[in-house]
Design brief:
Layout lengths: L2 H27 L2 H27 L14 H29 L7 H28 L3 H30 L4 H28 L6 H13 L6 E10 L2 E10 L5 H18 L3 E9 L14
Parallel strand pairs: 2-3
Antiparallel strand pairs: 1-2
GO molecular function, one term: ferrous iron transmembrane transporter activity
Subcellular location: Cell membrane
Membrane topology: Multi-pass membrane protein
């Protein structure tokens, strides 16, 4: 089992434990704000399961029906997570509306705050783990799961402060008002998550820093060629796809030009894992910058 799959599996267990702690916090207090926090944890468990399935599918080798692999399955997972976040926010808004109409005092607020604080601390620790390895393995599913957890952490901190304020002031209507603010924040996060995932499905180019690294590697390893141009990139989950034209001298043999391509490809794969490269070799009359050193355009 790969590291992303192991992390996705552990996320399910962490999500279930956090959900249990937050539900206890809501159960002993009757707080609408703590209910909103517990409801978001239900979504955490669902999204963790979706991430696990997506990471598993994306790791499936290419086949006859999917010759470029299954990497985009992770983007579908991230979109599902975004939809679930939006559903949770709407549910919280409805509960907030009812709470504003019929405010009620909190029961056992101190006990509820303790359980919620423990769940928040656990979520914060796991967020940093997922963010680190999600970036390292370029996994949209793990990154989306981490982003959702961070939203949950911020939400929980706000809930803790809000419930403490309700307890201190003895103004019950503050509780559903705080829950409504939390729901609006969740809506915004869900929208951003879905937007970034759609970008991946639409074959957006790689980030600028990755593109700069690619062009630097090509230029440093294109000895014998005249130039490289018409470079195109796209990314799908952990995978990066690159194609470009490599202009070589007219007298260069096929074997020699092939060795140049092999050298470039080896250098790229060494520095950028999970990259698929296609190079189209052209004669020097196709050069767009005659007489120059190998350049990327």
């Amino acid at each position: 089992m790969s590291i992303p799959m192991k992390l996705a599996a552990v996320s399910i267990a962490v999500g279930c434990l956090v959900l249990a702690l937050k539900y206890v916090a809501y159960y002993v207090t009757g707080s609408v704000a703590l209910y909103s926090d517990a409801l978001e944890s239900v979504i955490n468990v669902a999204t963790a399961i979706a991430a696990f399935v997506a990471v598993q599918v994306s790791a499936t080798p290419p086949d006859a029906n999917h010759p470029y692999g299954h990497h985009k399955a992770e983007y579908l997972s991230a979109i599902v997570e975004g939809v679930l976040i939006l559903v949770a926010a709407i549910s919280i808004l409805y509960a907030s509306y009812r709470g504003i109409l019929h405010p009620r005092p909190l029961d056992a607020p101190f006990t509820g705050l303790l359980f919620n604080a423990g769940a928040t601390g656990l979520n914060a620790v796991w967020y940093f783990v997922l963010r680190k390895y999600g970036r390292k393995h370029r996994s949209p599913a793990l990154t989306a799961d981490a982003q959702h957890l961070w939203t949950d952490v911020i939400t929980s901190i706000g809930v803790l402060a809000g419930v403490a304020l309700v307890w201190a002031t003895d103004i019950p209507v503050l509780d559903p008002l705080i829950a409504a603010v939390i729901a609006l924040n969740i809506l915004w996060t869900g929208w951003k998550l879905m937007r970034s995932s759609v970008g991946g499905l639409m074959d957006e180019v790689v980030p600028d820093n990755t593109l700069a690294k690619i062009t630097e590697i090509i230029s440093a390893n294109a000895d014998g060629a005249l130039e490289a141009h018409d470079l195109r990139t796209r990314h799908a989950g952990r995978a990066i796809f690159l194609d470009f034209h490599l202009v070589v001298p007219g007298e260069m043999t096929v074997s020699e030009s092939h060795r140049v391509c092999d050298r470039i490809e080896a250098a790229l794969r060494k520095e950028i894992p999970d990259i698929t490269i296609s190079i189209h070799v052209e004669p020097e009359e196709k050069a767009k910058h005659p007489g120059g050193v190998p350049v990327v355009r």
